[in-house]
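Sequence in, structure out.
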Amino acid sequence: MPNDHRIPAPRVLTTAAVLVCSAVLAGCGAGSGAAQGSPGPSAATSTTASSPGSASASASPATATAAKPLAGRTVVVDPGHNPGNFGHGREIARPVDIGTHRKECDTTGTSTDASGGRPAYTEAAYTLDVSHRLRDLLEARGAKVVLTHDADRPYGPCVDERARIGNRAAADAVVSVHADGSAVGNRGFHVIVPAKVKEGAADTSPIVAPSRTLGERIVTAFRRATGTSPANYLGGGTGLDVRSDLGGLNLSTVPKVFVECGNMRDPKDAALLTSGPWRQKAAQGIADGIVTYLQG
């Protein structure tokens, strides 16, 4: 969840197929209209020289583009909170300017309840795991991925710095990964998109529309990939929540959204969030949404 609540530390803590052609197979020449691909086994032993229009050993530019649809694009993935925040209460309580007002640097985030002898599962651990999975999926599609942190710093970054990281990267899209900490019975995911804010250092006017489009694409893809429904407690069933009080959105100059993957305080949602296979589906849904957004 965004940095609105603090909890004590837990007690314990299709790619395109490549068509195989060879010089001895009819219909694979320039006039066939078929995509050209790697030569088949028979072509490997052929002594016939390649000619213009014969099969090439490398994939065509169209095939390469289909396999790497995000080549040349930059995506910033922002794992909500930091596991180290639990040991740096004073530092993360320090107020920072978010444009509309001052707000604490960061929080510890929420967690599931400890149960059945198992410790609570923190939001910080969840977001880092899903962010790693998301990074791998995006890099496989050709994107350059920048993480705002990788639990490689004592705490933070603060919300204003998280925004600056995306801005400096000139990111095509920024996604902040979270899980909510709402009441039991409140279930489902939602995507937070920026409201129009122009105050102090904040001016979201240029990013409101593209961020909403990014959010809509992620809602559709996340629902499809995970089989879960948009939140039943906000957004009117749209899966979207418009916020003006989050520094990570207010200070962003590039399209950015927060994805609240579910409610960690609800036992049914918690059962999903603590499942490794489901977290992979969550990452897949976010990645698919980013791809459809960037491809227009």
